[in-house]
Design brief:
The protein has 265 residues and is an alpha/beta fold. The protein has 9 helices and 12 strands. A hairpin with a 3-residue loop joins strand 6 and strand 7 (104-109). It is globular.
Length: 265
Amino acid sequence: MRRIGIDAGGTLTKIAYEERERIHVKSYATDQLQELLQWLQITAPGADLYVTGGKRQRLEELSNHHIVPMDEFKALNKGTQFLLEQEKKETEPFFILVSIGTGTSIFYITPTSHERLLGSGIGGGTWMGLGKLISGKDSFHEFVELAKEGNHKSSDLLVEDIYTPDESPIDGRLTAANFGKAHMNENATPCDHLAALSQLMGETVLQLASQAAAAKQVQTIVFIGSTLEGNAKLKQVLASFQDRLPYKPVFLNRGAYAGAIGTLL
């Protein structure tokens, strides 16, 4: 390997490399930097590293490889366009791109440009921090599995909870207050609270993304980022408002690695 693409994020470091005309990907947690450096030294001691992300400087300080800095937003766009074509996802040429990493960034993508519109502190860092406080565990994938078993309605206060037994003026299934029952329902479990966390994150990110889509008069919203990897509950929330909002959600199978693939390309 002569070239390796790296997206050194706040939570994960994502890697992309080409071997036998195929792009391969892998990732390391930020506290596994020594393991990453060892892998690079053994596997590709002479490779150039094309690196983006907030932890890029740390990698530059510790690695003996030649490092080429890359623009993060340009890499995300390039990697996303490649994956859309590779995975045969049908989208309009103009769309909103939502990258849910440690935090969330929202872009407007055209055939010739990309524009960062806004962002949020809600993201993978939220998932890890509140997941630890809720469950006492510290594994991303453990949180994902626990959230699958939970029911957010045991922790979230819904509109119907407020108006019952009277008729609600709006859809009673909507969230009136995220975690609004957490302090009242002693039967709610950590699984329920993690499901509620998925709901809070999905609703917040989608609200911002749908506002961006409305402002740019597009409907397609492409979701990428490591927080979505294997996170069926969060994807479900992001896709669950199509009967209320005019948008088309698109999820990429390797969207967690869009930035790394973009730097490689």
